[in-house]
Give the backbone structure.
Amino acid sequence: MKYLKYFLIGLFVFNSNLASAQEINLHTKITKNLRCLICQGQSVYDSDSEFANSLKILVNQKLKDGDNEEQIYDYLKNKYGEWILYDPKFNKKTYFLWLLPILMFIIGGAIIRKLFYLKKN
Amino acid sequence: MKLKINSSLLVLFFLVIFILFYKSLKNTNVYTPEVSVEKDIPFFNSIIFNSEDKINSNEVFKNNQFYIFNIWASWCVPCRKEHSYLMQLSKKRNLKIIGLNYKDDTRKAKKFLNELKNPFDMILLDKDGTIAIEWGAYGVPETFIVFNKKIIKKIIGPITDQTLIEIENLTK
């Protein structure tokens, strides 16, 4: 019975450590995907400006309130626009950005095909 | 013939790229968030400056009244320049000026107000800067004109002669 108690305490401590570690990871992931508007070119995670520090606190609060990643992005997008995200979502303003690499890949593939494979035949 | 077409295509390609890059040279790539107007003001909780009283935004902003919501701090140099404009606006009877003291030391803020006088009808505290984010602000100073709990104008940076006129026209 004594051992069971210790075991349960150990399990609890271990689990809560794990949970907070996950939370920190998510916090890092989110703040790395946010652009600092004061020092543009740096992420909120890397920046130490007043704005970035406040944003870190806010993300922490939102995570504690139970918001998920998507909800936090939506919230900040609503306040500052799509530009605050390093990883922009697919929409009518960004479709070219997302499709360009695929397009280039296809065109490149077609050129290679034309040059090498069709010549052989 | 085929070679000619190819080389002219190549020249055209580089020409297009050159024009594209040349034009982009002059573009600034500093982004300012879109000034979103006609947006509802955010709900927030704060503490009144110089007291320990808690207050929420619904108690601060009432309908049918023009408000100027100004984010300031004693450490912010442009705020000093802007202060005389706020003093000018504080003389207008139909306006209420709400200040948001952003990440400031209360003692220094008091000194700042003693030195330059206090234009604010009420000052709220934002110790960790999260209320400013609720408003979509990212620096100091920023000013919002509020009517019927909606933001009708947003000024990023200090108030100038020109924006003062705009504010006066808007709040007539």
